[in-house]
Amino acid sequence: xxxxxxxxxxxxxxxxxxxxxxxxxxxxxxxxxxxxxxxxxxxxxxxxxxxxxxxxxxxxxxxxxxxxxxxxxxxxxxxxxxxxxxxxxxxxxxxxxxxxxxxxxxxxxxxxxxxxxxxxxxxxxxxxxxxxxxxxxxxxxxxxxxxxxxxxxxxxxxxxxxxxxxxxxxxxxxxxxxxxxxxxxxxxxxxxxxxxxxxxxxxxxxxxxxxxxxxxxxxxxxxxxxxxxxxxxxxxxxxxxxxxxxxxxxxxxxxxxxxxxxxxxxxxxxxxxxxxxxxxxxxxxxxxxxxxxxxx
Length: 296
Hints:
By secondary structure, the chain is an alpha/beta fold. The chain contains 14 helices and seven strands. Helices cover about 40% and strands about 10% of the residues. The relative contact order is 0.24.
């Protein structure tokens, strides 16, 4: 049994408005999440033993718009990072909450339980050069490094054991000039499924939804959502029966392209598989890591 944890950045459950790409377009996997309801704040919760879908709070009982640093730290530790800082903070983790990612993360706790863990994202050399020079790591990379888990590089992508940020490898190839082939989102999903035979917990981060939301670019938003949707649809279709998919976000953004900021909307929580029932009581992004640890 393995858990596939999909973190999709900057996706909330928005209104049925033209500025919401989930309302304007029909994305098969997102509709499968909701049992063919619109992927919006109007979707009724699904609470079956092997299929859960609902909206959960990302505001963390803190004034202001949720941000990535505190939101992701909360999501990956089960601790209210915004309360510890005294405000929402991002995009990188605040110094006050870095100890949570170093010592109390989902990865660290899973390893303490004797579970094997992998972070599927790979990074080009330029990322490591900048991060080392500035000593500035994202929540996911800091959590991974602190748990003693190697971050994936080009070689892992070439070997088919890791995924690039955009899934298809085209940015690495066309923008960064890195010699990797372009692949389809469905092929990317096979890499995750293959990893479930080796690891107990697999995490993949997709941040391009948040980027498209900040840019208020409708075409880009539809492209990046569609790419992730194809990836997710293939995962749902081909995952092993004993594995559980978990999906959530850190804050809203791309669901309302009329503004370039984050939103106050609830974020989606989706669980599919034999562990899904544990998520029926989840109300906040703070509850996601404890639920995953219970399943493990």
